[in-house]
Amino acid sequence: MPMSIRSLRALVCASDLVERRAMVVAARDAGFEVLDEVDNAARAIQMAPLLRPTFVLIANELYGMLGADAVRELRSITSGADLPPEVVLVSADQGVREQAIDDGAHAVIPRDNPEALTRVVDEVKVLLETGERRGRADRRSGEDRRKVQDWS
Fold first, then answer.
1. How many CB atoms are closer than 10 A to CB 61?
2. Is the sign of the CA dihedral 72, 66, 143, 129 positive or negative?
3. Can you tell me whether residue 48 is helix, strand or coil?
4. Per-residue pLDDT averaged across 24-53, rounded?
5. What order do you get walking across the sheet with 55-59 strand by strand?
6. Overall pTM surpassing 0.85 (yes/no)
């Protein structure tokens, strides 16, 4: 088993119990220690500085505050190695995708897609273990160098 550069510690947030259980199972199956399960974004924001997760899996459809509105605050909290946690938003409304990505979400996945959930949780695990974003360019970086590279 590879030595992780960051610990695999997760915080799961969803108001719907069935959805929350599916998120917990996906995180545990990937090897994450699930630190806590909460049912609203305010509680996730409150618990994150105390638990210091390296990964937050949060639903968008929550009581009181949308998960998309909590992404920026969750990303401002430092976790292991003084880095913010990776945040994955699970949403039925993909219209929030661009804003959540701009606010620092690692990914926004459809609510009723267990394959996407498993794939993205595994992707975050690789990122935390190796520090590498596999299979795609880091969307938080500037312009894609492949488009402007001069081959002459």
1. 16
2. positive
3. helix
4. 95
5. 33-38, 9-13, 55-59, 86-91, 107-110
6. no
